[in-house]
Amino acid sequence: MSGFWADKHVVVTGGNGFLGSTVVRQLAEEGPRRVTCPTSSEFDLRRLDDVEAMFESLEPDLVIHLAARVGGIGANMARPGDLYIDNLLMGTYVIDVARRRGTPKTVVLGTICSYPKFTPVPFNEDSLWTGYPEETNAPYGIAKLAQLTQIRANREQFGQSAIYLLPTNLYGPGDKFNPAVSHVIPALIKKAVDAKESGSDHIDVWGTGSASREFLYVDDAAAAILLAAQRYDDAAPVNLGTNEEMPIRDLVTLICELVGFDGEVRWDTSKPDGQPRRRVDPSRPRPLSGSRRWSTSARAYDGPSTGMSRTARKPRPAPSEARAIRGSPFGAVRSVRHTGPARLRSTQSTLARAALSISSSSGAMMTGGQ
């Protein structure tokens, strides 16, 4: 536990979601005075009066803004206007009301989708303003990037303490398998599982398989967010990632092997790949490098064990104080250490097994882009 958290009331928007529930679970272990996860039915963050009411009612000492409307490449293509305006309004209102009410600190999560389509790899934060994002990601990515501009402007004019973090593609138990919002890893897992169970001789996958993605385990991302909340206070945005990438074609092969699907993979090249490559440079957050849980060289979270030490294959019980701290309903790998040249493959293998153990959704999935 850290004394930093002891007297704080922390509000986590999106605290019941995939990343948010993991942040809340880890936050509970730090012993804050109070943690609250307001729901969209309680406060619609797209409405200024609701955001003002939330701050007035809860009076937070720290806000971790994770609420977002997200989806994979299919959702980005189908609902670009919704993704743009919803994310723009939520972030704008949360940051502005936090400033006006004098909230001591605000943590805002950006997205790797904000980077230009052809960014030099690995992505450095200074490249954010050098070009236009990949077209299917642009509405969401630009809406989130506007929040970085707002944070910088508010810090300069008003002295607002707010930070902006850029995680790469997240994965892990509790990820979404709904076809409307799923990202590449759960989408591929569900495709392979469905094909195997139905006896299908093939699966259809969007794109060519040539695009690559970097993946960050959700527990690692949550730990990095909490460390940044505690130790980082600067206008510069910060990447959260592993500095490793995997071609989608290799990821498909790996997942098919793990689930035991030996049929044909049919690439639908009429569909987009999304951004050609994604891998971030995670070396910026020097103030955090002294922590045993933070490494600036190759990963965001460096836990004490030497591998995926334990995977819980049964539902994770919610904390007793469900109103104040709402846990994830899914099992999780408890600690992570990425070591050796095969660490990405090992990490993906553990993910696939864990995700398969919790998946009960049905329906076709679209992959790529995200």
**What spatial form do the alpha-carbon principal axes imply?**
globular
Helix/strand/pairing category: alpha/beta
Query: Count of helical segments?
Result: 9
Strand content: 5-15%
The major pleated sheet works out as:
6 strands, parallel
Rounded Rg: 20 Å
* Number of E-type strands: 12
Question: Helix share of residues?
Answer: 25-40%
Q: Please, what is the average pLDDT?
A: 79
Low confidence ranges: 289-370
For the record, give the distance between the C-alpha atoms at the N and C termini, rounded to a whole number: 34 Å
- Strands side by side in the biggest sheet: 2-1-3-4-5-10
Helix and strand sequence = EHEHEHHEHEEHEEEHEEHEH
Walkthrough of the structure:
- It contains nine helices and twelve strands.
- With 370 residues, the protein is α/β, with parallel strands linked by helices.
- Helix 1 packs across helix 7, helix 6 (184-198) packs across helix 8 (248-259) and helix 8 (248-259) packs across helix 9.
- The protein has a six-stranded parallel β-sheet, sandwiched between helices.
